[in-house]
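Field reference: "sequence" (input) and "structure" (output). Example, ABC transporter permease:
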Amino acid sequence: MKEYLIRRILYMLLTLFFVSIIVFVVIQLPPGDFLTSYIAQLATSGESVNLETIEALKKQYGLDKPIWEQYLLWIWNVLHGDFGRSLLYNRPVSELIGERLAITFVISLFTLIFIWVVGFLIGTYSATHQYSFGDYLFTFLGYIGLSVPAFMVALILLWVAYAYFGQNLTGLFSPQYLEAKWSFAKFVDMLKHIWVPVVIIGLANTAGMIRTLRANLLDEINKPYVLTARAKGLKEWKVIFKYPLRVAMIPFISTVGWSLPFLVSGAEITAIVLNLPTSGPLLLEALRNQDMYLAGAFLLMLSFLTMLGTLISDLLLAWVDPRVRYE
């Protein structure tokens, strides 16, 4: 296992190097750069920028250098913990990400807990009560959850809440706490509003987990070893939870590490619809404006978390399934 971990870490470092190159190049692929977008916005609003100002900005942000030199400067600073300065917001990238990261992490963590708890309980119930009314009901709701996009559910919920109850469900805080500093009262206020994005974002993933767990568990509970355990007089809950459910959960355990990037990125479109101060809209805005340092830092972080999550999934899989070996 020790040799396996060392080998995987070396692979991760090499992969991150190539990912950083791809990320930087892809951000640069659209015609123009950040200054082009900035000047176009000023022109739209009726303002103009002289050539001296443009050249000064290019020099300030290093946009007058060749792309390979820009990349080397960026990756060298990243290795020293400096992600650069956002061209769009004129602030350090680490500061911008830090502001959004905590809220994004809390929303995504609650969403994951919702997905796993609800999906686990309903999936197990549907498999152990096959063709019952509850099974048909949850199957129907599962198909709706899989077929309707989360942002569409958000729009429908917002319209219903405002049209029939006069409630505005957007945002994460009450008006009096929007600009207030963090306190226990502000945290409690956030918890009162957080259920809306948690349920909406988690709906589709919960539906998928229910369907997959139900199918896997149904496949396991009809196998000979389960019939033998029942014949020996083992209690039904122990028969289900000790062996079949453990095997049925393997596909989820093998991909549980993929939840790490989700904790940071969140659901971009749904976050925009619900006006959530998360990192998703910030990343989208950075990509739209070709803010290469902000977008590059985000994408590099998501790539790292994906690789780290995959490693964690592999280790958990070896712990749960004794058939897995890493020689």
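Residues 149 and 279 are 20 Å apart (CA to CA).
The chain has a mean pLDDT of 80.
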